[in-house]
């Protein structure tokens, strides 16, 4: 007779959330004063996205947000993380706000609060106003200064009602996919520019944090969401260990070093010295970046497996966001990336919940006493409605059960994890992949914009309402 399975139960105050980003869901790209962002420009450039697809319409959240919030409430969410479109609020990235743009977010926040859902605002999820890119973009220091002004505008508008704030989402992608490999907007391929962009994103985070705190109630929480990599060496050979350290510095230390500890890793500076001289790090920058945080967001999908380049690499570069002949890893041309073994999602990413546990425990040690949130975690599958119109996605349920169990193990092991945001609330524009990859717990028929909760959404609702993970077969 099998042993009974101990229920996986979470603390009562644990937040059960879902996440989205502005360009991926809003649409209405030319309405109410909004001007193009780098993703509008990039997606309209031939050959940059699958099928030439764009976020022009996306899933029409700009016009359907009330229905979408009602759906969130039906699904038992206690928190919702969304991003602000900078060019909707401040079209040129400078000057006064467009109140119609701010009103959309004011109304969205009011709707969330009316349904008992805690809003979590991300100020920047990759959609830089095109005019700022035309002036040099993130490799230019001025962009960080403009971000601080933008943060103050949004903090003034929403800080009385929104308590959870995130400055940047995945600055690694903004810097190294946007300016290194070029698979993300703005599509530049300049290793030195990618490192300058990383520094100015760090500076934007620090200045933005200070700007928010200057304008908002002290009770509010300011965080950043990092897609920190779980970097594993192919073997314990010293060359492979050195390769893992190189990638760990470029994936993780380049951001958490200055943000959490006030310094870039010396090993990072040495490894990239042939790419850049870091002269753009000015006196006072590191102190400005190293603002005390109220929480840290961690985004996790799959681990990274590397070796010294002498080994045979049997997998793609581990940027996870499309192919490019240009590397997103400046100064690491002697590192090979390998496909980690195991089952994979539709993105080709290996499913490995142990990586999420390892990541949480690492940052429990990296930033002791700092509350943690899993601000993104999820999987893409080839979801299709059955003849009755229902969408069964048992693979996603198994994925969520495994990763949420890993979160609970981390809490048991002493980590202060206070919430989980499923990526994503609903199917949407998946950047360079267009609409071909479905991450949503809610299925979207892009022709009609009809929303249908998948079986994973019903499973997640039961988890959120009870605080206990249902069996993987519960929603089937």
TrEMBL record:
Give the molecular function GO annotations: beta-glucosidase activity
Give the matching PROSITE patterns.
Answer: GLYCOSYL_HYDROL_F1_1, GLYCOSYL_HYDROL_F1_2
Q: Which Pfam families match?
A: Glyco_hydro_1 (PF00232)
Q: Which UniProt keywords apply?
A: Carbohydrate metabolism, Cellulose degradation, Glycosidase, Hydrolase, Polysaccharide degradation
The catalytic activity, as recorded, is: Hydrolysis of terminal, non-reducing beta-D-glucosyl residues with release of beta-D-glucose
**Residues at the active site:** 376
Highest taxon of the source? Answer: Bacteria
Q: Which residues form a coiled coil?
A: none
* Record EC number: 3.2.1.21
Q: What class of enzyme is it?
A: hydrolase
NCBIfam families reported in the protein's UniProt record:
BGL
Which protein family is it in?
Belongs to the glycosyl hydrolase 1 family.
Spell out the protein name for this chain: Beta-glucosidase
Organism equals Streptomyces lutosisoli
């Amino acid at each position: 007779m099998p042993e009974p399975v101990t229920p996986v139960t979470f603390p009562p105050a644990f937040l059960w959330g879902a996440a989205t980003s502005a360009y991926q869901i809003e649409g209405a790209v030319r309405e109410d004063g909004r001007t193009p962002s780098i993703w509008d420009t990039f997606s309209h450039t031939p050959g940059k996205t699958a099928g030439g697809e764009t976020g022009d319409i996306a899933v029409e959240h700009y016009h359907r947000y009330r229905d979408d919030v009602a759906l969130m409430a039906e699904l038992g969410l206690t928190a919702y993380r969304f991003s602000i479109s900078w060019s909707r609020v401040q079209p040129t990235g400078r000057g006064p706000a467009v109140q119609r743009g701010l009103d959309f977010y004011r109304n969205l926040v009011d709707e969330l609060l009316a349904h008992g859902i805690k809003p979590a605002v991300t100020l920047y999820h990759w959609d830089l106003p095109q005019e700022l890119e035309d002036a040099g973009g993130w490799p230019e220091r001025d962009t960080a200064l403009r971000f601080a002004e933008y943060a103050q505008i949004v903090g003034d508008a929403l800080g009385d009602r929104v308590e959870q704030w995130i400055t940047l989402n995945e600055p690694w992608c903004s810097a190294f996919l946007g300016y290194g490999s070029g698979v993300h907007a703005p599509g530049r391929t300049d290793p030195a520019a990618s490192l300058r962009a990383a520094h100015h994103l760090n500076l934007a985070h620090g200045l933005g944090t200070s700007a928010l705190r200057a304008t908002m109630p002290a009770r509010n929480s300011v965080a950043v969401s990092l897609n920190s990599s779980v970097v594993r060496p192919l073997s314990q050979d010293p060359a492979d260990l050195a390769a893992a350290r190189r990638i760990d510095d470029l994936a993780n230390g380049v951001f958490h070093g200055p943000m959490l500890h006030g310094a870039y890793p010396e090993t990072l500076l040495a490894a990239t010295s042939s790419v850049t001289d870091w002269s753009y790090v000015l006196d006072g920058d590191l102190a400005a970046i190293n603002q005390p945080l109220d929480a840290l967001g961690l985004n996790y999908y799959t681990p990274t497996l590397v070796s010294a380049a002498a080994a045979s690499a049997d997998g793609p570069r581990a940027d996870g966001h499309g192919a490019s002949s240009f590397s997103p890893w400046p100064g690491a041309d002697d590192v090979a990336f390998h496909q980690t073994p195991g089952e994979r999602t539709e993105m080709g990413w290996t499913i490995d919940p142990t990586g999420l546990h390892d990541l949480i425990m690492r940052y429990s040690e990296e930033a002791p006493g700092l509350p943690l949130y899993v601000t993104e975690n999820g999987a893409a599958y080839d979801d299709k409605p059955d003849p009755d119109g229902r969408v069964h996605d048992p693979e996603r349920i198994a994925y969520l059960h495994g990763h949420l169990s890993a979160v609970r193990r981390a809490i048991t092991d002493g980590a202060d994890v206070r919430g989980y945001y499923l990526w994503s609330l609903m199917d949407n524009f998946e950047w360079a992949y267009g609409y071909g990859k479905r991450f949503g717990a809610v299925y979207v028929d892009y022709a009609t914009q009809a929303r249908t909760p998948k079986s994973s959404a019903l499973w997640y609702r039961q988890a959120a309402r009870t605080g206990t993970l249902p069996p993987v077969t519960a929603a089937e």
